[in-house]
Please model this.
Amino acid sequence: MLAVIVVPASFAASDIQSRTLRCGDAQYQYLLFSPGSKQPLPALLLLHGAGDHPPNFIDAWKSLAAQKHIVLIAPELPRTLTFESLAPAMFKCVVEDARQQAAIDPRRVSIFGHSMGGYLAYDAATLDSEYFAAVAVHAMGIAEKYVSIIDKAKRKTPIAIYIGDRDQLVPITRVQRTRDLLRKAGFPVHYVELRDHDHNYYDVAGQINADAWEFLSHYRLPNP
Model:
């Protein structure tokens, strides 16, 4: 059973909701930004990096989302090893709750993930390929021992990948290998190497977000 409590967000503007809900045996929080519309809008699930939090991601995307009419859903991600196995169910639980609060087109729900969030975004792209329309990842590749997730995708989810040529945490060779494996498996891949860029997403968030949305906005799930 899904239990939901609306929690006021002291830091946020009035157009950002803070919500707490129970998915399975765990309780999670997420932020929701909606431009407001009677017509269903595309939505973006924002997955932050380790040590970061949803307000920063919402701030980085809010201006573009208001301009392009995108609903933003930003959950607080636990920084624990056990969360990875729970993440797919949690992502869908959060999105389904957001659909009760905002006009969202279920065929146009995509993901943007940075670093740790990007790691989880690859899981969503492959394990929930029939739920998420497209995925964009900054500063992360698929770990070598987990490349088998590529073979589990029922649909070839379009994926955009961004990596800096001076990333001090994620080797560019790992990300290039991910790109090549995905393309070999038939996934549509948009790959961008950012010159003189390191692991800091926020330094170039405007550039990445605009390019990522240009890619993501073209995709929707097929009709049932």
About this structure: The chain has one domain: 4-216. Residues 1-14 have pLDDT under 50 and may be disordered. The radius of gyration is 16 Å.
